[in-house]
Amino acid sequence: NAGVTQTPKFQVLKTGQSMTLQCAQDMNHNSMYWYRQDPGMGLRLIYYSASEGTTDKGEVPNGYNVSRLNKREFSLRLESAAPSQTSVYFCASSDDWAGIGETQYFGPGTRLLVL
Amino acid sequence: AQKITQTQPGMFVQEKEAVTLDCTYDTSDPSYGLFWYKQPSSGEMIFLIYQGSYDQQNATEGRYSLNFQKARKSANLVISASQLGDSAMYFCAMRDSPSGSARQLTFGSGTQLTVLP
């Protein structure tokens, strides 16, 4: 039982390049999330998916797209990377709708540097 | 306005002593949940403890307890008998609505805890 896995662990991009961050969970969770963490700040939600086939914008969606490929996998795509997207990206998943106490479990993160 | 405020950027504690990490929150929703996560230097986010707004008792999980003062809108994390492995960044987070986009967690800026031998 690996929990939430993310690939790659680290990536360097040049401005304008594109890439996809991969996330998979084996906990049979319906909901999945993408966050970014910038230095000195907490995590901010980019996009989330409440169930297979649905996605919604979070607090900071500009410059990103997502795909909920199936129940297990949720990918984040940067179409044209910018230096402002240099950050650590976390994927998370949570149980079926369990009310206010629904706990999110996080992957190990992907460190992205855009030059 | 900041929804979650952690006013201590850094804290030091002697090994085996207790430490309190502060968290205040702002919401007008009567139903909300408060979470604490630990982020060690390796970078992963580890869930520690949860407190619901309607919970009558303060949450406890092993050496972690949550000092929940609803009227003051504070949810401080107490770590008893600190260990060297407790050195990490600690984040307070809140969910203040069960529906739609508000299912996201809102995080504070974190407190870096260092346990001294």
Q: What keyword list fits this structure?
A:
heterodimer, A: 115 residues, mainly beta, seven-stranded mixed sheet, four-stranded antiparallel sheet, B: 117 residues, six-stranded mixed sheet, 12 strands
A few lines on this structure:
Chain A has 115 residues and is mostly beta strands.
Radius of gyration of chain B: 14 Å
- H/E element string of chain A? EEEEEEEEEEE
End-to-end Cα distance of chain A, whole Å, is: 36 Å
Strand content of chain B: over 45%
Q: Catalogue the unreliable spans of chain B.
A: none
| Terminus-to-terminus distance of chain B | 38 Å
- What share of residues of chain A is helical? under 10%
In N-to-C order, the SSE pattern of chain B is EEEEEEEEEEEE
Average pLDDT rating of chain B: 91
Mean pLDDT of chain A: 91
What is the total tally of β strands of chain A? 11
Helix content of chain B: under 10%
Annotation field: number of helices of chain B? 0
Q: What is the quaternary state of this protein?
A: heterodimer
User: What is the number of E strands of chain B?
Assistant: 12
The major sheet of chain B is characterized as: 6 strands, mixed
